[in-house]
Amino acid sequence: MKNLSFLFEKKYVSIKNVLMILPLMIVFSSLSCSKDEDDNQPPAAIVYNEENPLDKYHNLAGFTTTSNFVNSGNYEFGLTFSPNVKGKINALVVKLPDLNPNLKITIWDFDTKTVLRTEMVNVATANTVVVKSIPEMMLEKDKNMLLR
DSSP assignment, residue 28? Predict the structure, then answer.
């Protein structure tokens, strides 16, 4: 207590004054605190628009140009992609220059080389967009995928 005695030597600092100010400080601090009512609600989810990159892909890949294939036949093409955000695939969109009643589309995990899903699509008319709804498949951000 000897070290703290200098606090009580002054006339304006006394235990009586401290005890009078203390309740005022407690009341003021309790009234100044407020709780936001929005704390209980989760943040709003970000909703991204559904995308169909097929037309842009056709133009950039050169599939819109026509060639005269002498020995035309069946060809297999693959498309790798990596989602920018966590999302889902709920449809497959196909546009072929020829009809194919049994087009097989397989979705692969590119890194582990495992098949995630295989769907059959009936392309009954050439050069038309065919959309096949599928059970939704969740996609992880930045995960390498392959459509084949």
Answer: H
